[in-house]
Amino acid sequence: MAEDQVDSRRRNFLWGVASGLGAVGVAGVAVPFVGSMMPAADTMAVSTTEFNLDTLVPGQLVVIAWQGKPVFVVHRTEPMLSRLKEYEYKLKDPESLADPRVQADWMKTTEQRMTRSIKPEHLVLIANCTHLGCIPLFKPSPGRAEWGSSVPEDWPGGWHCPCHGSLYDLAGRVIDGSPAPFNLYTVPYKYLSDTKILIG
Amino acid sequence: MVIEKMLNSRLAQWLDERSDIVKLTRAHLTDYPTPKNLNYMWSFGSLAMLVLTIQILSGIFLAMYYKPSAMMTSGGYSVAFDSVERIMRDVNFGWLIRYMHAVGASAFFIVVYMHIGRGIYYGSYKGPRELLWIIGVVILLIMQGTAFFGYLLPWGQMSFWGATVITNLFGALPVIGSFLQELLRGGFAVGDPTLNRFFSLHYLFPLLLAAIVGGHVHALHVVHSNNPTGVDVHEGKGTIPFHPYYTVKDAFGVGVFLILYCYVVFFHPQLGGYFIEVDNYVAADNLQTPSHIAPVWYLTPWYTILRSFENKLLGVIAMGASLAVLFLLPFLDRSKVRSARYRPVFRQMVILFFISVLVLGYCGHSVPTPTLKLIGQLATIYYFAFFFMLPFVHKFEKTRPLPEEI
Amino acid sequence: MKLKQMMAVSFMLGGLFAALPGHASEGHGVALKHADIDVTDQAQIRRGLTVFTELCMGCHSAKYVTYRDLIDYPETSLSREDVDDLRGDKPLIAGMVTDLAPEDAKVSYGKVPPDLSLIVSARRGGADYVYSILTGFEHDPAGHVPDGNFNEYFPGNRIAMPDPLSWLGHDAADTADLEQQALDVSAFLAYISDPHQNERRAIGRYVVGFLILLTLVFYLLKKEIWKDIKH
Ligand code: HEM
Ligand code: FES
Question: Could you list the residue ranges forming a coiled coil in this record (chain C) (predicted)?
Fold first, then answer.
């Protein structure tokens, strides 16, 4: 060994550069691999869904798929809308302020924050319970007549989640005492015409 | 030194008390005594491990999008073919991962063939390294199986007809032939069941391979590395610790390899039809065979041996024997001297052997003509003659004097 | 040392085999015409797209290319309006599929025209082959094959595709124009057979450049460390 001849500064420098570049290389390799797990171009391309509101009769609910997720679309009748106000005192977050996911850009007025729709009659929301993601059952008529003890006596009409019993009113607002923390999340959508909406 | 610091850290000590991890790292990686005169031919071992890693990694990510189904879709394509095209077109960086995998398969064989050639030339297969060599041949066979299964997956014309031809080879065997054939195909022809089981096996085999490579390295560390002179090395005198000497040398080898590999991946991923064949961009069609069908380049030497015989059964047997005889190599060669450097006769024989394998490969890739067939037969004869001559060479060969020390 | 040289030579020989263009991509006798195309040239690819949609798509599809891709790929980057014109009432996410039903094609031409998404990768000679076929319609010198079905470059010379550019018997004045159309559509097809190829080459330059730098540092480090060892 010729220890005396070793230029340890040069040696340390080269070790440093080699390790540094090596680390950059490894990080670079991670980019395409992690990137490949993100949604592919064709998956992104189907990220919008058109829906024809004509197909709904007043009072009806449909569940449609958007980006593979279920979405509620409800045509709310006058009486349904009128009941929204009465039970407000029982709600966790009547004005949908608690979380960004329960809000939307177009929610400009208090009215819109409470009815949670662009046009009051058409409600469009993510159908997953904000607790752990089950799809709540639609129980629109008030009281227990149709639903038995699955809903409280003063049931305003809305959704009941079969998994752990969360309750939502007809604007998808969560009723106090439910395990679900938030109102049902909103979905970006816009009207293409009076009878057609584009979700996403 | 960073590595020295890491090995002395409290975390490492804590782990070591419970798992021997530091002791093992020192014994097998950092302090592992290695002959000081290894040349760059010894880099191909670590390169093979690198390529295996590349294949497993890229394969796992391909499998996230690949769909093994021969069900037809529009335009004469299949679900499997469509899923590969989706990887190429829609999946983020899918094209890169697929090309890494397809080019990686060829790179794997280049690296492993060089590694094996090194072993033959320097007599690394000779005692005490016989078991190490045998494990290596097992690795080669499993690799070939893996590549064969993988090649079916894109479900192109070459996939389909390659698998048809090779499963028919098994069918040529007496007694068990048709049983084996149906076992591989899961039907009367290559079809959807074949594709499904090949995908399953294509996923399994590399994991087996990884385990066997572990055994290969373990066996190596019991008997230690050979070296270009082939003489035994005594610890301390002729050896140096693996780290940093061979870690940096191998790192340089890895760098050179990656430059070549990435150049092909990014600029010539099909390598003019050698790495991904032109006909494999045509969807599998069980009613029409491509005009020229040959296996991918790394299987062509064996394919030529097969074609050199008029009789199908003989061909299949010869092909099997050409691989099986590799297992016997350590026992056929009786010379006391390992390295071809000191064995003038053996050296000529080995060089000719390498040339014959290249010639076999060339013939197997080309459209058969009578001349090529003859050349292929001559190369086949020499291939076997090499092994037949080995037990006798030492009787008349005058070896050159060996050095005392390396 | 001898071995090293030998290995180097065999490596180079291997590389040479691989590099021989005529070998793996061996054609069928007739030498193809060279298609001087540029798959990075947006104008050429767009012109080729027009030829494709107006002529080829009468019979052929390119099912792996969706209308949306024509907007998203930088090499085409059409506007939404242009794509709406092209697609009619087909969905944006549909592949470019011909209106000619496979059964009808079989009746008219005896064969279903192949999908062209991958044609340049799937034929020996690639874009040269496509270009040669399009400009290879001739009168059969032997007089067996009817006009419009004889093609100098098609294997066997009898092609089921009727001369799409009306090359046979065209006015000499139109030659340049027809050749240009053939080139443009070859460029388009070469592009769509591997739509990330330009991105791939662009990234590749950085990757290989980086690796050369890295390897150089490894080399210097190796030299430095190995000074310790007396040979
Ligand atoms: C010993 C290591 C391996 C070798 C030699 C190998 C070889 C091959 C080959 C030759 C192909 C056909 C390439 C083409 O033309 O596209 C292929 C395809 C494929 N392999 Fe592997 N492979 C290995 C490991 C793996 C592993 C561990 C996986 C994980 C599941 C995997 C998953 C795939 C998939 C999904 C395909 C089909 C996609 C495609 O065709 O590109 N491979 N492999
Ligand atoms: S998921 Fe709905 S209450 Fe738990």
Answer: none
- The answer to whether residue C157 is domain-embedded is yes
Confidence (pLDDT) at C7: 54
The ligand 2 atom nearest the CA atom of A165: 3
- Positive/negative CA dihedral, C182, C183, C184, C185: positive
Q: Ligand 2 mean position to A160 CA, how many Å?
A: 9
Q: How far is the CA of A108 from the centre of ligand 2 (A)?
A: 29
Which one of C93, C217, C228 has the shortest CB-CB distance to A21? Answer: C217
Nearest CA in chain A to B94: A36
pLDDT, one tens digit per residue, over C128-159 is 999 999 999 999 988 888 888 899 999 889 99
Same domain as A110, residue A189: yes
The 10s digit of each residue's pLDDT in A93-140 is 999 999 999 999 898 888 888 899 999 999 999 999 999 999 999 999
Burial of C21 (0-12, 13-18, 19+ CB in 10 A): exposed
Collect all residues of chain B within an 8 Å Cβ-Cβ radius of residue A18: 248, 251
B237 with B267, same domain: the answer is yes
- Domain of A55, in residue numbers: 45-199
CA dihedral of residues B207, B211, B217, B219 (deg, nearest 10): -150
Kindly write down the DSSP assignment for every residue of A30-46, as one continuous string: HHHHHHHTSPPHHHHHT
Q: Is residue B134's pLDDT more than 80?
A: yes
Q: B98: domain range?
A: 39-292
Please give the distance, rounded to the nearest whole angstrom, from the Cα atom of residue B150 to the centre of ligand 1. Answer: 5
What is the rounded average pLDDT of the residues C94-113?
92
Which residue pairs from B195-198 have beta carbons closer than 8 angstroms and sit at least 24 positions apart in sequence? B195/B68, B195/B69, B195/B70, B195/B80, B195/B152, B195/B153, B195/B155, B196/B68, B196/B69, B198/B68, B198/B149, B198/B150, B198/B152, B198/B153, B198/B163
Number of domains in chain C: 2
Q: Tell me if residue B64 falls in helix, strand or coil.
A: coil
Buried-state track A72-98, b at ≥16 Cβ within 10 A, e below 16:
bbbbbeeebbebbeebeebbebbbbee
Q: C66 vs A21: CB contact, 8 Å cut-off?
A: no
Asked if A164 is an active-site residue, the reply is yes
Q: Which domain holds residue C132?
A: 23-195
What predicted TM-score, i.e. pTM, was given to this entire model?
Answer: 0.87
Q: Which of A15, A32, A41 sits opposite B90 (nearest CB)?
A: A41
- The answer to whether the peptide bond before residue B290 is cis (omega within 30 degrees of 0) is no
C130 and C226 belong to one structural domain: no
Residue that the structure tokens 């299964």 belong to = B149
User: In this predicted structure, what is the pLDDT of residue B1?
Assistant: 62
Percentage with pLDDT > 90 across chain C: 73
Which candidate in A14, A29, A46, A48 is best for mutational testing of the C interface (most C CBs within 10 A)?
A14
Contacts of C167 (CB under 8 A, 6+ apart): C134, C135, C136, C137, C178
Give residue B171's pLDDT. Answer: 87
Tell me how many degrees the CA angle A114-A116-A121 measures, rounded to the nearest 5: 105
pLDDT digits (tens, 9 = 90+) for B167-187: 988 888 888 988 999 999 999
User: Taking a C-beta distance cutoff of 8 angstroms, is the pair C191, C51 a contact?
Assistant: no
Residue with tokens 């969905």: C91
Spell out the residues 6+ positions from residue B260 whose beta carbon is closer than 8 angstroms to its own. Answer: none
Which atom of ligand 1 is nearest to B56's Cα? Answer: 27
Question: What's the pLDDT score for residue B344?
Answer: 96
Residues 6+ apart with CB under 8 A from C45: C39, C75, C76, C184, C187, C188, C191
C81 and C162 fall within a common domain: yes
